[in-house]
Amino acid sequence: MALLALIIVKRAQAAGLTAPSDTMSRQQVSQNSSHIIKFTTQNAIQTTGDTITITFPSDFNFTSKTISTVTFTHGASTGLENTETLAATPSASAWGAAFSGTQDRIFTLTAPTDGVGAAAVAASDKIIITYDNTNSVNGSSNATYVISIAVAGSSSESGSVAVYLLTGDQISVTASVDPTITFSLDHTSTDFGTITSTSVKTSSPNITFTTSTNANSGYTISVQDQGNNTNPGLYNSVSSYLLGSADASYDSSANLDSVAGYGIQATSATATIAAHYNQSSDTVGGYTRTPQTLASFNGVANSQAVTITSKAKVLGSAPAGSYTDTVTVVATANF
């Protein structure tokens, strides 16, 4: 019976590590990669002198790698329950940790002198040993490599894990987005009704432009007036009379409380209104026969609104009759 008991113990000591794996951050040849090495031990690793050794195959290079770039955790459930302190030599509170061999491919952990450290490694503990990618260079061949893991001392266990290196482990993904712009007017006509020389009249309704574009530099909205085809303004074609809009300089605005004329004001919560049209009260900016910037925005725009208000007042000598004008509005995306 004593002989039988001895045989059983030897078989237990020769057990293999279970569920070994190595999760790498890169599997491309000659690239730096981290390694998360996991396995489950069948026996406790807590006797002074017990060791865990990881041996990488030829062609991997860990030259100048330090123990500060390695972590060692273990536990019964996730393997993250206990984090061990690593030091050059084992002590009562720290595991010894050392790189050795050609290009530091061998890494050895030695149990604390009291067998405990942060917590004793118990039988069936899940173990996680993590190398960060500092000075962790993959092999140079597009091939399968086998990493060996060995536990020695009071028990003897071993296992291995295979990793495969690729000549390229990254996918280049490209895409394009078509340039877009949408532009709408909530109304396409506005009416002053009867305008007089005694007060400033505002047309109804106001006109709101809504612009959306994915242009990085946003958009510009311009306005251009038809007038009498020579000068801008409200035109009475029967009498060949023009209620003028802008003066020759264009840069000045008109206060309709004191002068006769016709023009607009513009407002927006997001867009920048051109100074000429950024008016209030009864001051307006005049139209011109060439396109002029009304508003602009620098950036991707989503349903941005610009509203114009039209105002007019005539001289008492203005001929009776119907006055009309056509204003052309253009939104340009600035890609």
Structure explained in plain terms:
- It is rod-shaped and about 115 Å long.
- A hairpin with a 4-residue loop joins strand 16 and strand 17.
- Helix content is 4%, strand content 39%.
- By secondary structure, the protein is mainly β.
- The relative contact order is 0.15.
- The longest helix has 12 residues.
- The N and C termini lie far apart (89 Å).
- The protein is built from one helix and 24 strands.
Task: Give keywords.
mainly beta; Immunoglobulin-like; disordered N terminus; rod-shaped; 39% strand; six-stranded mixed beta sheet; 335 residues
The sequence of SSEs as H and E is HEEEEEEEEEEEEEEEEEEEEEEEE
How much of the polypeptide forms β-strand, as a percent range?
A: 35-45%
- So what's the CATH class of the largest domain? Mainly Beta
Which ranges are low-confidence, i.e. pLDDT below 50, for 5 or more consecutive residues? 1-14
Query: Any idea what the radius of gyration is?
Result: 41 Å
Q: Report on the biggest sheet.
A: 6 strands, mixed
Strand order of the largest sheet: 6-7-8-3-10-11
Round the mean pLDDT to the nearest integer and report it. 92
Q: What fold name goes in the CATH topology slot of the largest domain? A: Immunoglobulin-like
Tally the structural domains: 2
Count of individual helical segments: 1
| Quantity of strands, as a count | 24
Question: What spatial form do the alpha-carbon principal axes imply?
Answer: rod-shaped
| End-to-end gap | 89 Å
Structural class: mainly beta
> Percent helix among the residues?
under 10%
CATH architecture of the largest domain: Sandwich
